[in-house]
Write a structure and sequence with these properties.
It contains 3 helices and 3 strands. It is elongated. The termini are far apart.
Length: 63
């Protein structure tokens, strides 16, 4: 199996379970690094991993 090095934006959104609008919000807020290749927006796998790790953990509510 081949290791993914970079995701085109639609593939990043599909594999990480977020929409295009949310992805651009994260990019514009500086929380997700993106690169451009012509008209394509690309997310490096290492930047995707860093973004995932930066998300806050969900704390269980006390009953």
């Amino acid at each position: 199996m081949t290791q993914v090095e970079a995701y085109p934006l639609p593939e990043f959104c599909r594999t990480h379970g977020i929409g295009r609008t949310k992805a651009y919000e994260e990019i514009n807020a500086g929380r997700l690094k993106a690169r451009k290749s012509g008209a394509r927006t690309i997310i490096l796998a290492e930047d995707a991993e860093a973004w995932l790790k930066s998300l806050p953990e969900l704390s269980p509510k006390a009953a």
